[in-house]
Specification:
This protein is mainly alpha-helical. Helices cover 58% and strands 4% of the residues. It has 8 helices and 2 strands; from the N terminus they run H-E-H-H-H-H-H-E-H-H. Strands 1-2 form a two-stranded antiparallel sheet. Helix 5 crosses helix 6 and helix 7 runs antiparallel to helix 8. It is globular, with a radius of gyration of 15 Å. The chain starts with 6 loop residues before the first helix and ends with a helix.
Length: 171
C-alpha cells in the first residue's frame, strides 16, 4: 500500500510551518463526480474512490467523535490539546465529504495513539484502502450512535476498533 506521506515527513513540514497545509500528493478523488470505483487492486486492498471514501470518512468522523467523547472533551478542548483547528475538527466529525488535511490526521493520530496509516486511509489520503479496514470501519459506524455519552456497548466497540486499527498497521 502506498501512503502519501510518512510520520517523519509530516513532522518536518509541521515544524517548518504549523499553519501550512502540506501537499501529500495528487488527490485520490476522481476528477469527475460520476466515477465510482472500489476495484480490487492488490490482494486485500481496493483502490480509493467515492465508494470507499465516503463510508470511511463517516467512520472517521464517528471514531474521532467517540474518542473525544470518551475522553470527556468538547470539540474546542480537543482542538486546543491536539493543536488543530476547531473548524476542521468539526468538519471531520460531521461532513463525510470533507477530506482532512494531513496535519490534522497526524495530530489526532499522535493525541489518541491511533495508527497514522489507518487514519490516513480513513481520511482518503492513500491510493489504496485495506479491505479489512474498510469492512470494519463500516461495521463500526453502523454500530455507533451519535450521542454525547457512550454506552458500554459503544465503548467496547470503540476500544475494539482502535485495537484493530493499531493491529492492522503493525501486520
Amino acid at each position: 500500500m502506498e501512503c502519501k506521506y510518512t510520520n517523519d515527513w509530516l513532522r518536518r513540514k509541521i515544524a517548518s510551518d504549523p499553519d501550512d497545509d502540506p501537499e501529500a500528493g495528487p488527490s485520490v478523488l476522481p476528477v469527475t463526480s460520476g466515477a465510482h470505483r472500489a476495484v480490487a487492486h492488490q490482494e486485500g486492498f481496493a483502490v480509493a474512490g467515492d465508494r470507499t471514501g465516503v463510508p470511511l470518512r463517516i467512520a472517521l468522523g464517528m471514531l474521532v467523535r467517540q474518542l473525544r467523547s470518551n475522553a470527556g472533551l468538547s470539540i474546542a478542548e480537543l482542538a486546543q490539546r491536539a493543536d488543530v483547528s476547531e473548524e476542521e475538527l468539526r468538519r471531520v466529525e460531521h461532513d463525510p465529504h470533507y477530506t482532512a488535511r494531513a496535519r490534522l490526521i497526524h495530530q489526532l493520530s499522535a493525541y489518541f495513539s491511533v495508527s497514522l496509516s489507518m487514519l490516513s486511509q480513513m481520511a482518503g489520503a492513500t491510493h489504496e484502502v485495506d479491505l479489512v479496514l474498510f469492512n470494519e470501519s463500516v461495521r463500526f459506524a453502523a454500530r455507533s450512535d451519535d450521542v454525547s455519552r457512550l454506552t458500554e456497548e459503544e465503548r467496547t466497540a470503540l476500544n475494539a476498533f482502535v485495537s484493530l486499527l493499531n493491529e492492522r498497521a503493525k501486520g
